[in-house]
Write a sequence for this structure.
């Protein structure tokens, strides 16, 4: 039986930002038109991933800054038919019953990333657990040494400012990565997979 | 006649650092063993570049922090036979006569990056001008809109801290890049070239 892997799968600009400045509910990725590559990255993910469950940060569910605080029962910004179609575990401080939308159920976890990961692994079985972001959850997983594989979709843009993926993400010594695949899409995105050494 | 291009050609870690923490003259790239890939990147450059002259920051000539201040006549850290073999223009605040080492002459420019670029272009003719770093010069060139092509050598390591390439580098709006080549070396480095849009 294959062991489920924990995969940090995230898009970032060439200069390392996962969202541009001035994010809002209407413009979740901020300025800089990062969303112009969203469809390309999503179809690449569907074709290449082997995902059985995901862990999200709260904002990945509810959208922009502060939205949750304004409405703790927010339906999120994924609409009636989210593209995931596997269980999603949302790390949050707010207790809430699960939300089902289309073929996706969002379960809210209030006792931290390890608990969310355990629940996601139980749901995923042999399939992989995707850490979908945002940046805060991604860094927590990296810092805790919980990421087996890093899948970066590098978008061909310099944003100049915004929300960084890699910021204060490693308290420990440097870690060597093993590059296991690079795919360059015609649209200019580079999809690169690294195995994170123990 | 082809126009000379200005090329920012630089190595960085997956998390965006061009040098690790605790840099010194003996360990110019700091902790994190970035130098383990230096030879691979250098041979890739030699095989793929069309360089006629280069612009360096002061530390790219003199080595680690403060070395120049300690000895304004420092020979730098490139030894008797620097690998460049084309004219190198060093941006600095300190007036100094040129230094020749092997087949490389270092000329010191005290009136800014535009002047250094003009002199390098005159020396390069139809060949390209390489902006070799460090980070400060690289950012100045990016911010001034003087870079035609960005050549990143992405080293397979997460450093966690150090000196960032892309930090406060764009006062202006986001810039779209055109990916013109991606080469994945067996050693794990990804060499990627982007054309920087107007």
């Amino acid at each position: 039986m294959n062991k489920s892997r924990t995969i940090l799968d995230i898009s970032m600009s060439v200069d390392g930002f996962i969202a541009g400045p001035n994010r809002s509910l209407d413009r979740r990725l901020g300025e800089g038109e990062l969303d112009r590559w969203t469809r390309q990255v999503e179809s690449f993910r569907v074709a290449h991933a082997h995902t059985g469950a995901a862990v999200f940060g709260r904002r990945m569910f509810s959208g922009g800054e502060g939205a949750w605080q304004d409405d703790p029962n927010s339906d999120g910004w994924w609409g009636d038919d989210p593209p995931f179609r596997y269980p999603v575990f949302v790390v949050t401080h707010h207790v809430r019953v699960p939300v089902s939308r289309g073929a996706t159920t969002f379960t809210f976890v209030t006792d931290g990333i390890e608990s969310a990961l355990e629940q996601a692994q139980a749901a995923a079985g042999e399939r992989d657990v995707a850490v979908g972001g945002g940046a805060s959850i991604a860094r927590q997983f990296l810092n805790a040494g919980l990421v087996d594989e890093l899948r970066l979709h590098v978008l061909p843009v310099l944003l100049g400012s915004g929300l960084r993926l890699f910021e204060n993400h490693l308290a420990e010594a440097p870690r060597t990565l093993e590059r296991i695949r690079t795919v360059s899409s015609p649209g200019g995105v580079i999809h690169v997979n690294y195995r994170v050494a123990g």
